[in-house]
Design a protein that fits this description.
- Strand 2, helix 5 and strand 3 form a beta-alpha-beta unit.
- This protein is α/β, with parallel strands linked by helices.
- The chain has one domain: Vaccinia Virus protein VP39 (Rossmann fold, 3-Layer(aba) Sandwich).
- The chain has a seven-stranded mixed sheet with strand order 3-2-1-4-5-7-6.
- Helix 3 crosses helix 4.
- The chain has eleven helices and seven strands.
- It is globular.
Length: 277
Amino acid sequence: MENHKQASAVAEDYYDSDDAVRFYLDVWGGEDIHVGLYKSEDEAIRDASIRTVETIADMLDLPKGAHVVDLGAGYGGGARWMVRNRGWKVTCVNIADKQNEINRQLNANAGFHDEIEVIHGSFNEVPAEDGAFDAMWSQDSFLHGGDRQGIIEECARIVKPGGDIIFTDPMKADDADDGELQPILNRIRLSSLASVAFYREAAKKAGLVEVDVREYPDQLGRHYGRVREELIKDRENIEKTVSTEYIDNMIEGLGHWVDGAATGKLNWGILHFRKPE
C-alpha cells in the first residue's frame, strides 16, 4: 500500500492541473464530478450524478442543522445540494487548492457563507477534533488514498458516537486480481484498488457496524462510458481549453474503466457504516 502522503501528493498534482480543472468544469460544469445512478443509457451525466447524491442523502436520517464532513469534496456540488435540500451544515475537506478555490466561489455565489466551510486537507489526517461531525460523506475519493484502512479509522475518529459513515468508491470486484487492472492503475498512479470485502473488513477493524451496502457495478461502466461519449462528441469545443494530450489520455483511460466493468473486474457502490453509541 502506498504511503498516504505520497498518494495525497499524486492526487493533488492531478486534480490541480490546468487540464483537469478545465475538463471537469467543461464536462460537469464544476459541480458534482462523481459516478451517477442512471435510469437510461443516454441520460445526462449531471442528472444521474444528482440522483447519486439524493440516494446517499436518503440513506441518512439526519435532522436539519446536522454537521456533515465531505471528504474529497472536489468542487462541492454535493455539499451545496445538502445545504439546499436538507439544511445540513457541511465541512468540505479536499486536497486540491484549485478545486477548493472554485468551491469557495460557488458557495459564495449561492449565498452559503456560513453553511459550508472548505478546508485544505487529506482524508488520512482530517483537521478536526474527535467526534466533531454527525456524519462523514465521501464520493469516489478513497481510491486515491494510500492507506485505506487508515482512512476508515480516521472516519471513525471524526464522527460522534452513533454517527454515520457513508461513501462511494470505484473498486475492484472481490475476486479480481490487481494485475488484471494494471492499465487502470497506471492511469491513476496507484498499485491497487479496494473492494467491498476490503471495506467491510476495514470497517470491522475500526469498530464500525454495517448499516447497508448497495453494489452497482453496472453503473460504473455506464458512467465512464457516458463521460467518454460526451468527451468524444464535444471534443472540438473542449480542445479550446484542454490539451489534446490530456483528452487523448482521458479517452483511453475511460475505455479501460468501461472494459473492466464489462468483464466483471470492477465494482462501485454505496457503503454505509455506523459508529456504535
